[in-house]
Amino acid sequence: MKTKILCLLIVFSIACHQTLISQTPSNSLYLQTSEMHDLMVNYTADWGNISRFYTTSGNAGFGGGGGGRGGQNNTSNYNSPERRARLLQLIDEYEKKMLAVNFDKISVYGKVDYILFKRIVDDAKAKLLEEQDDYSKIVKFLPFSDIIYNLEKPRRRGLNVNGEEVAKQMNEIIKMVQKAKEALKKEESIDNKLAQLGNDAVKALQVVLKNEFDFYNGYDPMFTWWVPKTYTDLDAQLESYATALKGKGKNMDAKPKDDGSGILGVAAGRDEIIRQLKREYIPYTPEELIEVANKEFAYCDAELLKASREMGFGDNWKAAQEKVKNTYVAPGKQPEEMFELYKQSIDFLKKNDLITIPELSEESWRMMMMTPERQLVSPFFLGGETLIISYPTNTMGYEEKLMSMRGNNPAFSRATVHHELIAGHHLQGYMSARNKVYRRDLLGTNTPFWVEGSSLYWELLLWDMKFPRTAEDRIGMLFWRMHRCARILFSLNFHLGKWTPQQCIDFLVDRVGFERANAEGEVRRSFVGGYPPLYQLAYMTGGQQLYALKKELVDTKKMTIKQFNDAIYSEGSMPIELLRVILTNQPIKRDFSTQWRFYDIKK
């Protein structure tokens, strides 16, 4: 009888766990793993082994153990044709393993991991196939590449080579490079992307030769006698040819024109925006997201007028905001002020028992000052494990100093200190390093809709909970809320080809109250700072997704607010619709696609 009761209790415990993750016992298997764990970890490690073995980066013999980052590729570790083919073979092997998984029989955690993993593998495959197609268009400029790759292969196993024969082959390659360089002069211009790929390919060949040279030179007597001078000549010829290839590049599309802002961003276009939204499980068109932003902006406008009237400025909200901006602290006092604002934020979180805050997370965050150069693209303070303070230095001009001080006034900074530290980016990173790290290690699960959205969600939550104490505090929080609405509007309008960078700057100044230099920095950061097209709209959009999910689970008493907030960070970064699948134990199929309309535009 006792055994039967115990079994029933275990079944009941598992059922509760799979209903809501926050009710999971601390020793539950699913806290750190799922049925897909092994496939994901092994894929990551296999990708790393292949990438390091078929390397075109320096110090090829010193690759460590551990996993690579599946789907990761960068110009310092160019995908040679050999490595690209091997990675595509790897993907084919794992696609077959995934098809063998009995999807309907695994837990909701395994199902979400399956979909995350498939997303990563699909992205990696598409990127490799695109590279392969591009390479086929420039391979005619590289008639010597296979010879160089084959020349280097004996090094991988330390085989003895004939130094004289190596020097002879290198000498023949020099002639081939010289001939290719002459032929290149007769070619018409080629697309910049292809020219850069050709340059990267030749640079990779230089590294391959250097790996071989460094391995044998000084150790093998005959190699050392025959090869060095010829190798040096060949390397110089390849360097010259790489430069010539890059010089053939020409942007075949219309070049972006400088509208006077000096910001030459490239618009992604509507089709690409829609493709990326689909990948992030956002079932809205760009035009619908603009409607969402306008609706949120209207709410901010109404609240801003309330605060302005309370401060005695009537409907002149810009005058009220101006007063708030001029509350900036004196030079040298900003770090102390930021620490005080942090303490106010952390005290509020603890008093209301909103989330689990490990003691070490409080102890281990650091502080540093932002350089004047970085402030050109990051005019406001940043966070994470390090709080990076944006405030003037002695090298900045008078107007630059004032704009930086005014833009980082206490009310504005108090509005987002929780976004940057706890319970935002710092706690995100702290928990991500301790929960389901196999997801974090496999690049592709990470998404700005979770990273920035979950930090923005705290701003929405704390606004509702009356964190702002005064009208001035509300002005500060509304500045940032309007800022995030504006990011949706100006980034989408730019990428849809409707606004120029200067129009984006003017919009931030006129409608949000930005200092002009700060607005220029914000737009520059958005379009030439290396951010993907959806990044700026991910703040408010991701925040609204989590806000809607809180209404679904917390406001209906299915979870407490602390359980919900802890659950967000326990699963790590992923598209938020997939987080919803876990927290609601939603039944899904292998071909899951986005369907969650988390924001009612018409309401």
- Total strands: the figure is 4
Helix content: 55-70%
Number of domains as seen in the coordinates: 4
The strand line-up of the biggest sheet is: 1-2
- Unreliable residue stretches: 1-27, 61-76
What gap, in angstroms, lies between the N and C termini? 55 Å
- Helix count equals 27
Relative strand content? under 5%
The profile of the biggest β sheet is: 2 strands, parallel
Envelope shape: globular
Mean residue pLDDT: 90
Radius of gyration: 28 Å
- Overall SS class: mainly alpha
Provide an overview of this structure:
By secondary structure, this protein is an all-alpha fold. The protein folds into four domains: 31 residues; 107 residues, no CATH class; 109 residues, no CATH class; 315 residues, no CATH class. It is 63% helix and 2% strand. Helix 21 crosses helix 25 and helix 22 packs across helix 25. The radius of gyration is 28 Å and the shape is globular. 40% of the residues are buried. The N terminus is likely disordered.
